Structure formats: C-alpha cells, structure tokens
Amino acid sequence: MLGKLIKHEWISTWKVPTALCIYLGVFTILGCISFLFPIWESDNVIIELIAILSIILYIFSLFAITITVFVYFVVRFYKSMYSCEGYLTHSLPVKPWEHIFSKGLTFFIWMAITVIALTASIMLLILTALSTVDGQTMYMVWDSFKHVVLPELSAMWQELFGMSLGAYTFVISISSIISSVYAILMIYFSISVGQLFNKHKLMASFIAYVVINCVMQLITSLLQLPIFKTILADPLAADTAVPNMFRYMLSSGLILSVVLAVAYAFGTEYITRKKLNLD
User: Fold this and answer.
1) How much is the pTM?
2) How far is the C-alpha of 87 from the C-alpha of 90, rounded, in Å?
3) Contacts 24+ apart (CB under 8 A), 160-168
4) Which among 131, 240, 257, 103 has a CA at the least distance from the CA of 183?
5) DSSP 159
6) Using alpha carbons only, what angle is made at residue 115 by residues 111 and 68, rounded to the nearest 5 degrees?
7) What CA–CA distances, in Å, run from 158 to 163, 166, 231, 243, 249?
8) Per residue in 8-47, pLDDT tens?
C-alpha cells in the first residue's frame, strides 16, 4: 500500500514542479544562445538595459522557483492531511506514518530535483559565458577549472578546514540531505501542532514553526559556545581551533538534526493518529 501511496502522491504533484523546471530549462537555453552572439558587447543603451533586466529576471526566477516548489508541497501536505480533503485521506486503510512518509519522500525528491536543476542552470550559463572570452571553448574552460582552479581551491580548503575538498563535498552532501529531511519534518510537525487548534490553524502552525525554529537556534548557539570560548581564551590558537570548530559544529549539527528529525516524525505521526482535528 505504501508503494501505491507514493505513486499516487507523485502523479498528483509532478505537474507544477515539472512546469517550473521546463521554464528554467528554456530560460537557460535562451541565455546560453544569447552568450554565443556579440550582443553583450554592444554599446547600445537599449540592449544593455535588456541584458540587465534579463539577468534580474533570471535571478528572480531562481528564487521564485525554489519558493514556489517549497510552498506548493507544504500547502499540499496541509490540505490533504488536515483540511476537508483530510476526511478522504484518513479514510484509507493505511497507517498515518505511511501518509507522512509518502508525502515527505515526494517533497524531498522534488526539492532535490529543483536544486540540481538550479545548479545545472547556473553552471551552464557560467561556462557558456566564460567560453566566449578569448575564443575559448566550454571544454577548455572546464579543463582549466579542473586542472588549475580546483587543485588550488582544494589546497586552500585543506589548510582552512583540515579536510580535502572532496571529503568536504561528501560531508556537505550528507549534511544537506539530513538538513532537508529535518526541515521537511519540522514543517510537518508545526502544521500538525497548528491543527490541534479549533480556529486559526494556519496562524497557529506558523507560530509553532517560528517558536520551534527559535528554540532550535538557541540550542545550536549553546552547543557552539565551548569552541568560541576556546578561541576567545587563546586567540593565538585560532589557526588550529578553526578546523576543530568546523568539525565540531558540523558533527554536533548533524547529530542534533537526526535526533530532532526523528522526534518530529514521531510527533507528527502521534498527533495524526491520536489527536486528529478536522473540525
């Protein structure tokens, strides 16, 4: 039944994020094509104005697509779980955690696809723009980055943070996955807390989210205090303290995120199972 839920959730939600990704793809292709023509080197005021407006529109589109996909799945969770649609959702012979898992998994996958699409769009535009300088090809730009810039950047990263760029990329990738799951479950838990109220459920959900977020920020700051005290007590030890601080903040943040994500998941499941309020 869980597989059917995931399939249904995917079929019900794919149109909006897909349309946004297609829009981004078309915008990116047009941008790359425009870089291949000398219009960007023109002194014409109108062309310069159009170029500036195009860049502004592109940057706005990046933020708008991310926010739209995020809000779309948050609203869908609320409507399908705790609004009038919730009567149909909870009449199905499945457990609450299956609803939460199927919706959360679809949310996570589409946010990952969106981030990948945004990153690919930005990188493609940058490579295309750089390839127009001094008659370089896109391959030449990438080869230069791979054999010149990347080794220097990796050496600098090793010196600053005490780990290679490859290891950092791997750790950050894992951290991003955990942080994304944590963020989704915190929102789900906040919405679940908000629906406990008989009136102004959306406002209550928003307040719950703000309060939970503030408390988590306070806890995170308290966890970081020991390492900051070390640096302040001995400024000369900052060179060795920075890598240690980075590893400490990263590891403590990951552990806290995992623990809280599990707590949010159980909290959301418990409220949905025992405290469901669709009035």
Assistant:
1) 0.87
2) 6
3) 160/242, 160/243, 161/242, 161/243, 161/246, 161/247, 162/243, 162/244, 162/246, 162/247, 163/243, 163/247
4) 257
5) H
6) 55
7) 5, 10, 20, 9, 17
8) 999 999 999 999 999 999 999 988 888 777 666 667 777 7
| Residues with Cβ within 8 Å of residue 221, at least 6 apart in sequence | none
Are residues 39 and 47 in contact, defined by beta-carbon separation less than 8 angstroms?
A: yes
Cβ–Cβ < 8 Å for 62, 118 = yes
Amino acid at 46: I
Closest of 274, 253, 89, 271 to residue 175, by C-alpha = 253
CB atoms within 10 A of CB 95: 14
Tokens of 235: 């400024």
Other residues' Cβ atoms within 10 Å of the Cβ of residue 41: 8
Which residue carries 């080794």 as its tokens? Answer: 151
pLDDT digits (tens, 9 = 90+) for 236-250: 555 555 666 777 777
Length of the chain: 279
